Amino acid sequence: MIQSQLTQTFNDIFNTDEKPRFFFAPGRINLIGEHTDYNGGHVFPAAISFGTYAAARQRSDQQLRFYSMNFPEKGIIECDLADLSFNPDHDWANFPKGMIHYFIKNGFSISHGMDILFYGNIPNGAGLSSSASIEMATGVVLENLFDLEIDRLKMIQLGQNVENQYIGVNSGIMDQFAIGKGKKDFAMLLDCQTLKFSYAPVELMDHEIVIINSNKQRTLAASKYNERRAQCEEALSDLRTELEITSLGELTAEAFEQSKHLIENDVNRKRAKHAVYENERTLRALKELEQGNIQAFGKLMNESHVSLRDDYEVTGAELDKIAETAWEQPGVIGARMTGAGFGGCAIAIVQQNHIESFKDQLTASYTEEFDFAPSFYEAKISDGAKELVEEF
C-alpha cells in the first residue's frame, strides 16, 4: 500500500509517468546507554521498523527537487547542484541537501540532479532520530542511483558531518550508526570512542518492545543537551588533573568513586557519575541479553532511567510518569526514557498478553496528570538503510 501511494504521489508532484526507485532508512531506539556516546562510552541501539521512505529518480539536468509527504504545505523545495549551501528557507530539505553536499565534497561523482520524495512514519519530535533517518535514506539514494562505491561507515560519518557542521547540532555518531548498520532482530553494542561494535541478538521470548511517545514537545532538548555536554567536559577536565584519561567512558565505577573528589562542582560530579555508571550498565546489559536473562536486562533499564532522572536530570515529569507507572504494571520487565530526554519517548519491554492492559493503565494514569495522552508503537527491530527491491 505504501509503495502505490508513494508512486502515485511522486508521479503527481513531479509530473511524470516514470516509476521511481524506492529506498528506506529506519529510525532507532537506544535500549540502554543514554548520554554516553559523546562521553566516549558504549551505547546499545537498534534500528526499528518505523523510518523514512524515499522515492527517487535521476534528472537529465543539474536541478534538485525535494518533496515531503509529511510537510505538503512546504511544497517542492528546489536548488541546484552548483549551490548546496545551507538555506534556512529550505527547512527540512537541508538534511538531504547536506548529504549531497558532503558526498560531492568527499569526491563522489553526483553527475545529475534528482527528484526525491520522502515519507516518514517516525512520529515527529519523538526523539527516534528522524533527521538521521532522512540523512541515511539520502545516502542510499545517492549510492544506488549513481552506482557509487562507498563504505557504509563513511556514509555514516558523512551523516554525522551534516548534523555537526552543516545543521550545527553537536551530536554523537550513534544515530547514523544504528540506522546505517542496523540488523533485523539484533541490537548493536557500539564503542563510541573506537567505533568498534558487535551485534547481539535481542530474543525477548514472549515480550515485545513498546515505544511510548510522551507527546511532550522537546523544547529544551537542544540547549540542555549542549549544557550537559559542557558539564561532562568540565568534570573530565577536573579528573585529568590527576588521571591520564581522554574520556569518562574509560573509567570504571570503582575508579570514579576513588577520584570523584577531584570534580569541584557538585552538579558536574552527578553528571559524570551518570556517564560512568551508565557505561557499566550498558556493558552488563549485553552480557545479560547474551545469556537470555531478560529480567536482569529489564532491571538495568530501570536503573538507567533512575540515573537519568536523578543524576543527569534530563527526564522531566512526563517521561518519569511513564517509566514509574510502567514499573508497576504486570508483565513489564523494564522501562526507561530513550533519546536526549525533555520529552520524546520512553520504551518498555512488556509481555505480549499484557500489552493492551498496559496501554490502558498507562493512558489512564498519564491523562489524569497531564492534559494530553501518550501514543504507543510496537516496534520490530529491523535492517539498516537500503534500497527496496521487492514489493512493500
Short summary of the structure?
The protein has 392 residues and is α+β, with helices and mostly antiparallel strands. The protein is built from 11 helices and 13 strands.
Task: Provide an overview of this structure.
- The strands form three sheets. Strands 5-4-6-3-1-13 form a six-stranded mixed beta sheet, sandwiched between helices.
- The chain is an alpha+beta fold and 392 residues long.
- It is globular, with a radius of gyration of 21 Å.
- β4 (63-68) and β5 (77-80) form a beta hairpin.
- α2 (94-105) crosses α3 (130-145), α3 packs across α4 and α6 (221-239) crosses α8 (266-290).
- It is built from eleven helices and 13 strands.
- The longest helix is centred in the C-terminal third of the chain and has 25 residues, at 266-290.
- Helices cover 41% and strands 21% of the residues.
Topology:
Layout: H1 2-14, E1 21-30, E2 42-43, E3 45-58, E4 63-68, E5 77-80, H2 94-105, E6 114-120, H3 130-145, H4 152-167, H5 174-181, E7 186-191, E8 197-201, E9 207-213, H6 221-239, H7 253-259, H8 266-290, H9 294-310, H10 317-327, E10 332-338, E11 345-351, H11 355-369, E12 375-379, E13 386-388
Parallel strand pairs: 4-6
Antiparallel strand pairs: 1-3, 1-13, 2-7, 3-6, 4-5, 7-8, 9-11, 9-12, 10-11
Helix pairs in contact: 2-3, 2-4, 3-4, 3-5, 4-5, 6-8, 8-9, 10-11
